[in-house]
Amino acid sequence: MSCKKIYIGQELTQEDWDYGMGSVYLAGPRNPKGKSWRVDIIDKIEKATSGVCILIPETEGQLKGGLSNILPNDQFAWQHLAMSVASTILFWFPHGVFNAQSCVEFGAWHKSEKVFLGHEPYGAEYMDWLLNKEQSLYPAESMDQLVSMAIHWIIE
Questions:
Q1: What is the mean pLDDT of residues 123-141?
Q2: Residue 146: inside a domain, yes or no?
């Protein structure tokens, strides 16, 4: 069984989020220019395991640096549903890339046992503190470590 990918705007069904071992939502801010960081993390997940559904809050075109044609309200509704039903939510914050929506999402979900945080060093001390306070977890310091933590949690 290979990994299944569902992109923003595609219909989500219970079959998707219950696929194989479960589902992984890739949360965090988009790169303002160029290829998305999600391309690398999708590749790492696919190399680390099979049988999970990857919920991707970008279109295939956005992953390559393109624009989305999805209306904001449709985007928000899809993201909210995908985070609600995902088995695991991975938050990744690339160096210097921050946005209000991702911070609000982390604030809404940080108490959930299904949340994992990773970032490159740049000053996310408050997020680190919240994750440690609520779950006694520390953030991943690399994408590889973040994927490893999440896959280990999914398997158990």
A1: 82
A2: no
Q: Are strands 52-56 and 88-93 parallel, antiparallel or unpaired?
A: unpaired
Q: At 45, which CATH number?
A: 3.40.50.450
How high is the pLDDT of residue 55? Answer: 96
CA geometry: angle 105, 107, 110, nearest 5 deg: 100
Question: Which pTM value belongs to this model?
Answer: 0.90
What's the structural domain count of the chain?
A: 1
Angstrom distances, CA of residue 9 to CA of 84, 91, 148: 16, 20, 28
What is the residue range of 41's domain? 1-9+18-60+70-96+106-121+134-141
Average pLDDT over residues 131-145: 86
Residue 153 counted as domain residue = no
For residues 19-43, average pLDDT: 88
In 10 A of CB 40, how many CB atoms? Answer: 15
Task: Yes or no: say if 38 and 56 are a contact pair by the CB < 8 Å rule.
Answer: yes
Rounded mean pLDDT of the chain?
Answer: 87
Does pLDDT of 39 surpass 80? yes
Radius of gyration from C-alpha coordinates of the chain: 14
